[in-house]
């Protein structure tokens, strides 16, 4: 009797824990394309193509390495459409003595797997996902010892733990943990933005793209010009290319936005990282090595490593600490439906139109587009956080609930009441104007405060602060903004609020069925 090893679509790593310490002749590996996973939210076409292509390549590589692999394709007539259904069928075929699986990334799937031992009458060994730097229990122990979660302190622990950018005597490289003061410059004219490495689809990817066109035509997003890495070897080339061409300027222009420039100096590595084609440690190590070799400045290497072993690990720990309640959190009582333009991109607000275009074309938008444009607008407008979260889960090639939900509910919508971040990431038009070239080309005037031609972010920002004064008025980090608000003449404040009301009344709610629904 053999061991059954199901490998989920975001567990595509050759050194996955479930493959360790097992004789190849004693195991059957199961990979499953299932309808439930493609439609529990109606993922972007590009995301489905990416996951299926990477799964198929990974299965081929495992076979070539001598493993016995069963691959259930989506269009297999016997496909039951769910993980549990496919595991049940594999048990019928192989009569295994046990199931061995790495803990899944999502709460929903974990609950499903928790039921397998009883359902199938077999031992189920669930292994820790050791591709992360910080284990789930380790994060819980760290969090329990604190009254407040602060990412910066967690990040320092991760630096100590990994030794990345640490001196021999245990001090942070360069004498500081954080070089943010050197980062976040506005974009300058005349900068050259490096193109990320593009990977032309091979026959496997083309077959998957044809399947996606046939089965998921009604899903959001463009599939044309698919260029993402779908194997570990391609992902490593993409990493090396990023380190050589974009990382040196990553820190400085981390928060910049430029019309028509979809990646700037960002890595575009999150899809490969979240599938398991790269590990966070190898990605962070590559940046540290480039710093040690003198090809990348410290502010860039540190800024990048902080995202990977700081933020990425922190949000994952937060997810498992706060689930399931955080999924329905709505601390700011936001009730507005998601505006239609999040799907159509049809808005005269150029910053938003650009972010939606990038999202539709590439299943990508960089962090500041997600946080300070798309997320910020939804929070200021009072959109129901669960609709915002569904949108973010659908549209990005890197979106899995463990990483998407904390970023949406916690970081961008402040719907968790400040558990993840002590202050809401709210900003008016001036912030977007400083960090981008959008406003100069926009139909709205960023300098105007109220009225039909004024940048809507301006009135929405003050209206948001006014609506939530009871909650944020005593927040020390927001004291300056409330002091400014309270210094304004009552008629000025009224004009802001009326302008916000008039703008909000023009928002068209999204049609049902884009994020969830049949097919
Ligand atoms: P880079 O800017 O090159 O950063 C390097 C790496 O750092 C990323 O690849 C990513 O792995 C990691 N990273 C950076 N910031 C974060 C963060 N806040 N949380 C987790 N990892 C981070 N990231 C996802 O991977 N999946 C998501 O579904 C997702 N949803 C988001 C939703 C919102 C509202 C916001 C504000 C952020 C979200 N992020 C998400 C985080 C971040 O925006 C993306 O990781 C990043 O834009 C991916 O592009 P990149 O690889 O070019 O990143
Ligand atoms: C996102 C996704 C999609 C679209 N399809 C599949 C699939 O058919 N088979 C699979 O194994 N995984 C898929 N995934 C990723 C899973 O949703 C992910 O592995 C779980 O949510 C656990 O994080
Ligand atoms: Fe966005 Fe306002 Fe600037 Fe237009 S003026 S691009 S809406 S911030």
UniProtKB/TrEMBL annotation:
Record has Lyase as a keyword: yes
Record-level Gene Ontology MF annotations: lyase activity
A Pfam family matched in the record: DPRP
Superkingdom of source: Bacteria
Keyword Lyase: yes
Keyword tags: Lyase
InterPro entries, per the entry: Crypto/Photolyase_FAD-like_sf, PhrB-like, Rossmann-like_a/b/a_fold, UV-DNA_repair_photolyase
Protein name: Cryptochrome/photolyase family protein
Lineage: Bacteria, Pseudomonadati, Pseudomonadota, Alphaproteobacteria, Sphingomonadales
């Amino acid at each position: 009797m053999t061991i059954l090893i199901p490998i989920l679509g975001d567990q595509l790593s050759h050194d996955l824990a479930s493959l360790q310490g097992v004789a190849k002749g004693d195991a059957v590996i199961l990979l499953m394309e299932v309808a439930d996973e493609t439609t529990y939210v109606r993922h972007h076409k590009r995301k489905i193509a990416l996951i299926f292509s990477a799964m198929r390549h990974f299965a081929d590589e495992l076979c070539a390495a001598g493993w016995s692999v069963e691959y259930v394709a989506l269009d297999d007539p016997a496909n039951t459409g769910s993980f549990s259904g496919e595991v049940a069928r594999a048990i019928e075929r192989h009569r295994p003595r046990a199931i061995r699986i790495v803990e899944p990334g999502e709460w929903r799937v974990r609950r499903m797997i928790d039921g397998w031992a009883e359902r199938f009458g077999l031992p189920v060994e669930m292994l820790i996902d050791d591709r992360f730097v910080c284990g789930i229990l380790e994060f819980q122990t760290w969090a329990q010892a604190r009254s407040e979660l602060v990412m910066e302190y967690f990040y320092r622990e991760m630096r100590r733990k990994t030794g990345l950018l640490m001196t021999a005597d245990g001090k942070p490289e360069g004498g500081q943990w954080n070089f943010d003061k050197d980062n976040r410059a506005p974009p300058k004219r005349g900068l050259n933005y490096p193109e990320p490495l593009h990977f032309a689809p091979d026959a496997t990817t083309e077959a998957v793209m044809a399947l996606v066109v046939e089965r998921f035509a009604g899903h959001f997003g463009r599939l044309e010009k698919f260029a993402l890495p779908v194997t570990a070897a391609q992902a490593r080339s993409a990493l090396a290319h990023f380190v050589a061409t974009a990382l040196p300027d990553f820190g400085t222009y981390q928060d910049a936005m430029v019309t028509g420039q979809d990646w700037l100096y960002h890595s575009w590595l999150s899809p490969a990282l979240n599938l398991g084609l790269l590990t966070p440690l190898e990605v962070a190590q590559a940046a540290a090595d480039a710093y040690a070799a003198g090809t990348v400045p410290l502010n860039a290497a540190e800024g990048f490593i902080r995202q990977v072993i700081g933020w990425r690990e922190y949000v994952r720990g937060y997810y498992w600490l706060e689930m399931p309640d955080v999924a329905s959190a709505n601390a700011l009582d936001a009730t507005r439906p998601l505006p239609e333009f999040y799907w159509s991109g049809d808005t005269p607000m150029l910053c938003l139109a650009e972010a939606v275009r990038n999202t539709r074309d590439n299943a990508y938008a960089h962090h500041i587009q997600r946080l300070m444009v798309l997320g910020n607008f939804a929070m200021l407008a009072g959109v129901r956080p669960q609709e915002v979260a569904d949108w973010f889960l659908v549209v990005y090639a890197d979106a899995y609930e463990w990483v998407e939900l904390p970023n949406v509910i916690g970081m961008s919508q402040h719907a968790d009441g400040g558990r993840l971040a002590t202050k809401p990431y709210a900003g008016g038009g001036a912030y977007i104007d400083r960090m981008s070239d959008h406003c100069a080309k926009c139909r709205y005037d960023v300098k105007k405060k109220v009225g039909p031609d004024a940048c809507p972010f301006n009135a929405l920002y003050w209206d948001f602060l006014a609506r939530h004064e009871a909650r944020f008025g005593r927040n020390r980090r927001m004291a300056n903004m409330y002091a400014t608000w309270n210094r304004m003449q009552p008629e000025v404040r009224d004009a802001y609020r009326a302008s916000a009301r008039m703008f909000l009344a023009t928002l068209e709610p999204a049609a049902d069925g884009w994020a969830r629904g049949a097919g």
